[in-house]
Amino acid sequence: MSSDPAVRCSDVTLSYRRHPAVHHLSGSFAAGSFTAIAGPNGAGKSTLLKGIVGLIRPDAGTIALEGVRRSDIAYLPQQSALDRGFPMRVVELAAMGLWRRFGPFRRMGGAAMRDVEAALETVGLSGFEDRSVGSLSGGQFQRALFARLLLQDSRLILLDEPFTAIDARTTEVLLDLVCRWHREGRTVIAVLHDFDLVREYIPQTLLLAREQVAWGPTETVLTEENLARSRRMQEAFEDDAELCKRPAA
Amino acid sequence: MSVYDLLIAPFADFGFMRRALVGCVALSLSGAPIGVFLILRRMSLMGDVMAHAILPGAAIGFLLSGFSLFAMTTGGVIAGLLVALGAGAIARSTPLKEDASFAAFYLVSLGLGVLIVSMKGSNIDLLHVLFGNVLALDDAALILIASIATITLLALALVYRLLVAECFDPGFLKSVGGSGGLVHFLFLTLVVLNLVGGFNALGTLMVVGLIILPAASSSFWGETILGQIVAAAVIGILSSFVGLVLSYQADLPSSPAIILTAGAIHAGSILAGPRGSYLARAFRPRHLRG
């Protein structure tokens, strides 16, 4: 068993569509930590996740992984990045999570299919195996993607807005699953919008507005002062910036 | 006129009709998965672009050695791949969007192709290249079409999982270390091969119809990719058969007859296919849609 994975960023600058989106970020996601990445829209949160998983190369600086290979990271993309009407069965979507074991060519046998069924049961999609992905609601689609994450069985899990546009019951089930991963010692990094949810469940927070605003224990990061500062910094980058919803006092 | 006279006799009596049908069936079989994946990758217009792109290559082959199957095929494949690579490279290295880059390439290709064919041949030759001559398929052309169909189906079966992953979630494939670029290029190569195989039968412009129309119709019939591929193949074969019969009985040019039949089936699918058509939606309770 390898040591728990950590992610170390040193002076990282990342661009999205040729525009710099994250500037000079330095710091570490510690092994076994559970960190929320929060900040205004366009703050570079998703870009940072893409940088860690290797979909974008840093323009400057390095993102070093310890205790995990880049190809072993489990990454949940934003739901809006995927075609929800794709003609694929639920079981096929979840089974993509076994890629590391079976790759593109090897045949998945009965044992693998039982693993897939177990993962679907964990996310509450038993009986949906043969349904087409297009027939799922937003919440059910997200559950299927979480079944894929489960099957990837990764020590480092990156989630991009896992609970956006999802019904409350699904959020509860999936959040429970994420907290379980944290208890199992996996390193979890999640981009999140809902400050209340972050305050209640997530120990560490990185507040981002193109640059690091604050990074550390959630209660010391998500202060009114820091949030106001993050909004000012973001507006300085783009005049027509949309604001995240104002956090409850 | 009996059913036999109407539907069977043309094929029983004439070898060229049988050859035309065999060629179109082979094209339909390999064109079906190609078309379905083109549509899933939102590249349905790319088929058209590539079809135009192979024209100057085929024309140069024609210029050098007349109606030589080998020369025209090789020229077509080379030109098609050059345009695919060139347009892709320009889109990546300049601010020009990929569709605009492809459009520029294929418009130039079309002009170049027509110019080259006109330099040597007559208008009849040009029409043959543009619209094909399915009723004059010789052994070599049939073997070429059948070989391309075989290669296509085998290659797609081999990379099926990769291709599906690349279509649905390219980020996932990249994150697990799969090479999306390689899959994409292999797929484009298969597209070019099928277009080249088809242009002897249906012509460079019409062959796209037999690839895209059945695939576009298939999403109204099949719920999974495999289901859609099977539906597209059946629709392609049916269009070929009905189109050839129409062409024979009503003395119509065969390529347009086949494509228009596929178009009629497409219209029927939009109106009354079992999935997502106007009819299906009218009879389905609203709450079942997410």
Automatic annotation (TrEMBL), chain A:
Q: Report the domain of life of the source organism.
A: Bacteria
Q: Give the matching Gene3D superfamilies.
A: P-loop containing nucleotide triphosphate hydrolases
Q: Where is the ABC transporter domain?
A: 7-235
The GO annotation for biological process reads: zinc ion transport
Listed PROSITE patterns = ABC_TRANSPORTER_1, ABC_TRANSPORTER_2
ATP-binding in keyword set: yes
SMART domains for the chain: AAA
Concerning InterPro entries, the annotation shows:
AAA+_ATPase (IPR003593), ABC_transporter-like_ATP-bd (IPR003439), ABC_transporter-like_CS (IPR017871), Metal_Ion_Import_ABC (IPR050153), P-loop_NTPase (IPR027417)
Q: Is Cell inner membrane included in the keywords of this UniProt record?
A: no
Q: Which GO terms describe its molecular function?
A: ATP binding; ATP hydrolysis activity
The UniProt keywords, alphabetically, are: ATP-binding, Ion transport, Nucleotide-binding, Transport, Zinc, Zinc transport
Belongs to which family? Belongs to the ABC transporter superfamily.
> Under which name does UniProt file this protein?
Zinc/manganese transport system ATP-binding protein
- Biological source species: Kaistia hirudinis
From TrEMBL, chain B:
Q: What protein name applies here?
A: Zinc/manganese transport system permease protein
Membrane topology summary: Multi-pass membrane protein
Question: What sections of the protein cross the membrane?
Answer: 20-40, 61-90, 102-119, 140-163, 183-213, 225-246, 258-280
Q: Name one GO cellular component term.
A: ATP-binding cassette (ABC) transporter complex
Q: Which residues form a coiled coil?
A: none
The UniProt entry's GO biological process terms, in alphabetical order, are: response to zinc ion; transmembrane transport
> Which Pfam families did the record assign?
ABC-3 (PF00950)
Please state which protein family the record places this protein in: Belongs to the ABC-3 integral membrane protein family.
Keywords per UniProt: Membrane, Transmembrane, Transmembrane helix, Transport
